[in-house]
Amino acid sequence: MTLSKIAQACLLLSLSTTSLISDATPTRADNDKQLSQVVDAGQEINKSASQSQQRVNVINAQIQTKSQQFKTINKEIDGLTVYNQQMKTQVANQLKELDQIAVSMEQVSIIERQVSPLMARMIETLANFITLDVQFLTTERNKRIVDLHSMMERADVAISEKFRRVLAAYQIEVDYGRTIEAYSGLIDIDGSEQNVDFLRIGRVSLVYQTRDGQKLGLWDNASRSWQPLSAQYRLDINKGLRIARKQLAPDLIIVPVTQNSAE
After folding, report:
1. Would you indicate the residue range of the signal peptide (predicted)?
2. Per-residue pLDDT tens for 219-245?
3. Comparing 260 with 37, which gets the higher pLDDT?
4. Cα within 13 Å of Cα(215), Cβ side
5. Taking the mean position of all CA atoms in its chain, how far away is CA 207?
6. What is the rounded CA–CA span in Å between residue 134 and residue 140?
7. 14 pLDDT exceeds 80?
8. How far is the C-alpha of 131 from the C-alpha of 261, rounded, in Å?
9. How far apart are CA 189 and CA 212, in angstroms?
10. d(CA 98, CA 255)
11. Where are the domains positioned within the chain?
């Protein structure tokens, strides 16, 4: 059977179209290859992004560390600024104190030159006072004067210490005037040296009693000598000796009074 020309033409057109479609459609192998390339490219992108994120994290950590260090250093700078200001104030005050000390040292030198003669006069006055005073503890009191004179010649004793010792000697003499004391010693009685008990009541009365209690005496500062004392004072003197030795409680006693003491 013979096809018409129109049918033949349609058949040819259909076959050409099918051939063209068949030629334009990719094969399965080509699709797999393209898909693999896309996956590989995506993995490379993810890997690069991960590496970039890691670098960003490292840089961010470094920035945080530097920021913290910056804040710490700023705090240290603020503290040092305050400290330096305080030190400047202290240094200024210390410089003022040094100036005052320098002035004081100059004044001390002047005072020292004036104090030494003053102390010498004080010691001499004290020695004269002891000589004119009621004659009690003469050895001890005269030795104190000798020690003071010796001290004044020493270069290893500061002026302040010398002055303190001179004032201490004066204080001891002052205390004698308001204390009661009993002590033992030797005295020449009728040409014979005897051991006696002395009773001193301030500077108003200085008496003695022999150990056997038979002889009593009173220091008379006007005549600078010992005067015999009536036996009527024996009980009071014994009582006074015991009070001075703290063997009795303080009580009223009657004793003769020394006249014209140096006090």
Report:
1. 1-24
2. 998 889 999 999 899 999 999 999 999
3. 37
4. 15
5. 52
6. 14
7. no
8. 11
9. 14
10. 62
11. 83-176, 180-244
* 3-class secondary-structure state, position 138: helix
Extract the tokens encoding 105. Answer: 């040292």
Helices (H), the chain: 5-24, 28-132, 138-152, 159-176, 234-244
Which two three-digit tokens encode residue 47? Answer: 């890997």
What DSSP state is assigned to residue 184?
Answer: E
Give the C-alpha separation, 44 to 151, whole Å: 103
Instruction: Provide the sign of the torsion angle of the four alpha carbons 151, 153, 154, 158, taken in this order.
Output: positive
- Enter the pTM of the model: 0.58
Separation between Cα atoms, residue 124 and residue 130, nearest integer Å: 10
Helix (H, G, I), strand (E, B) or coil at 153: coil
pLDDT reported for residue 20: 46
The residue whose two tokens read 């006090």 is 263
